[in-house]
From TrEMBL:
This is Thioredoxin domain-containing protein. Its main location: other. Gene3D superfamilies: Glutaredoxin (3.40.30.10). It comes from Candidatus Desantisbacteria bacterium CG_4_10_14_0_8_um_filter_48_22. SUPFAM superfamilies: Thioredoxin-like. Residues 31-185 form the Thioredoxin domain. CDD domains: TlpA_like_family. GO terms for biological process: cytochrome complex assembly. GO terms for cellular component: cell envelope. GO terms for molecular function: antioxidant activity; oxidoreductase activity. PANTHER family: THIOL:DISULFIDE INTERCHANGE PROTEIN DSBE. It is found in: Cell envelope.
Length: 185
């Protein structure tokens, strides 16, 4: 009898979890161009914390000029090491990073892998990734941006305004290059 009750509890828990995931997914509203990018703080692969606010934010006229941080255009790319379209985009994103990293661009790859320490070292090696990687193991930031799948690439201006959102784009480098060449003259 105890085994049956335990089994019922496990099944109900599983169903409840699935139901809450479906309800949560239905409530997701993907970010769109023109909106402010949601703020986040994520750990990078080396263990340091990175906040979007450190690179771009709404222009605050109350902050004295000496205390204002150097702002940058930011690209975020949500990915997973088991996502084939993510792997296809990686070389293009790497090219964009190399071309604009010294011209005012900050780029971050945001891994949604559950066990990044197990999968990222080989992925970094296989794809020659030099772009900083942030960890979103519980996919809270992915959900905050309103996404339920990867890849998604977001271009954000210095004032934290979203300029473009791309999903599985085979020409991502051409589109980003066109926009960045105008933004980072």
């Amino acid at each position: 009898m105890k085994k049956l009750i335990f089994l019922i509890i496990i099944i109900l828990s599983a169903l409840g979890f699935q139901l809450s995931a479906v309800i949560q997914a239905a409530e997701l509203k993907p970010v769109k161009p023109g909106q402010l990018a949601p703020l986040f703080m994520l750990r990078d692969f080396e263990g340091s914390y990175v906040s979007l606010k450190n690179f771009c934010d709404v222009d605050d006229t109350k902050t004295p000029p000496a205390l204002k941080k150097q702002r940058a255009v930011v690209i975020l790319n949500f990915f997973s090491t088991i996502c084939f379209p993510c792997m296809e985009e990686m070389p293009a994103l790497q090219r964009i990073y190399e071309k604009y990293k010294d011209k005012g661009l900050k780029m971050f790859l945001i891994s949604i892998d559950g066990k990044p320490e197990e999968v990222l070292p080989q992925f970094i090696k296989d794809y020659g990734v030099e772009v900083p990687i942030l960890l979103d193991m519980y996919q809270k930031t992915l959900q905050k941006y309103g996404f339920e799948s990867v890849p998604h690439t977001i271009l954000i201006d210095k004032n934290r305004k979203i300029l473009s959102v791309s999903k599985e784009d085979k020409e991502i480098d051409k589109k980003l290059d066109e926009k960045l060449s105008q933004l980072l003259k």
